Amino acid sequence: MALYRNGFRVVPYGDSDNDWLQLDEAYAKRSILAPVANRNFFGAIQIDDVEGVYFEEHTSREGLVETPAFTRLKNIASSVLISVATRIAQERGRKTRTSKSDPNHGQFKDDGVKHSLIQLKEIVETKINDKDNNASKEHLDDKKEVIEAIEFAERNFEEYQKALADERSMLQFLATLGMTTAEFSHEAGMTFNAVRLDFKTIFDWMQRECKDDEFLSLAKKTQLMLARLDTLTSYLNSLAGARASRNVSALSLSKAVEEFSHGIKMQASNQGVELEVSVPDFDPLYSAPMHEAEIASILLNLYTNAVKAVKRKGKEKKIKVEASRSDGYVFFIFSDSGDGIAEENREKIYDAFFTTRSAPHGGAAEIEHLKGTGLGLWIVHQIVSNISGTIELTDSPDNYSTSFKVSFLEERPDE
Length: 415
What we know:
The protein is an alpha/beta fold. The protein has a domain at 2-135. Helices cover 50% and strands 11% of the residues. It is built from nine helices and eight strands. Strand 5 (318-326) and strand 6 (329-336) form a beta hairpin. The longest helix has 73 residues, at 137-209. It is elongated and about 105 Å long.
């Protein structure tokens, strides 16, 4: 990372053997696992100080004198570069720090940047208030503009910190919820395997010995319900297993939609919902690299919301999923015949915890209190945005009220 002062490069900053920002030192300590060594950056820092008020060169013309301003500059530059590298590593799912007990594990340090901004502001204010400062009015105005810019950056930074804290809390909540769901699905599957063998013995005996037709009819219904439960738990277990892998690759949207249909169709039938799926006959619809669990989560969340919507309407319960491609994108349109989305709510539906449903009464079943939390579409929007996709409300086909179009970049030849 080179340094330029008033348009001229200052040596030796930026040379391969110079660690003026102490990036190599930080990386060598291995407390930061993100790639923050000098070899990982290429660029330059430009400073303008024509009168040499803040930055002074050594008489040898090599390097700058260690003034307070130069120290602050190094701190800011180092903090920003380490923060950026750590953030990129986080987005790629990599471990960024060695200490597991560190409460800030996996988070880049915001406080260093904020502290440096405050110190820089104090330096400029000191120069403005210095009675011995003979700088021109134009230079004083420039310094005031710098202070205003720093104050603006401080305000934005504080807002960013609050938003980031909210997002971290939400992600921690969702991670806990996901692990709980996976554990429940696994335990339910294990229990079901044992129960299924016992019920099979009972059913075989009843078919041979029982002469009560009404009882046999109830037994067959029970068998059908167990088959539906088996399909659903198998789908959820496969989804939980897929999340354990962090590998991403080109994904067949056609296959994902068909697997979703296979895993959920019996459950939909049990809910009285007609599920229709349409994919191209000879086009797998490969997308740009993504995680297979991501598309499954999107479909499952949209399905859950759709089932609630069609039940609230209480008439014909229909869900339709159509997959196709257009203009460099592969996409699917998820439609339902539910109670629809009011025009005034269309801009809010992706907000966390936004829901138009009133809270259930105190005596309602516990499951009713868990419905309609307003997280489903927020989760879908987060997943889609993180993989450079889009989600939007679109015109619905006949006999349907709400349609979401979810699009992803199609696979490129080099992927």
